[in-house]
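Exam revision sheet. Question 4 asks you to relate a sequence to its structure. Input first:
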Amino acid sequence: MVAGFIVVGLAVLADGIAAGRASFQFIGVVILVGGIALFVAKVAEEIQPTTTKWDVTGEPGEVVQEIGKDTKGIVRVNSELWSAKSAGPITAGSKVRVTKVEGLQVWVEELGADSSAN
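Answer key, structure tokens:
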């Protein structure tokens, strides 16, 4: 369908140019631009976004960079690094569990000595 628009647009445009008629040229340009617009829309529709919504709530992790009371740290969850915050400071190497995801940042809580991180 899109190719048909482009071909018809080119044919009408070429016919208008050969005959010296401005109205055919205009119609050809309109059809050609419409076909190109449809083609671009079709291609854009097929492109899949590269980002994915991750929900790691409840997943265990490990603190890679210390999380301070008022500063972010870094945690490893499922082999990926996340910017992290918590209600209180947590030292590097501590086992944590994700309690909430906010964009590309997670909130974590430290696991007690009796909890297991799976």
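Marking note for examiners. The chain has two domains: 2-46, 60-110.
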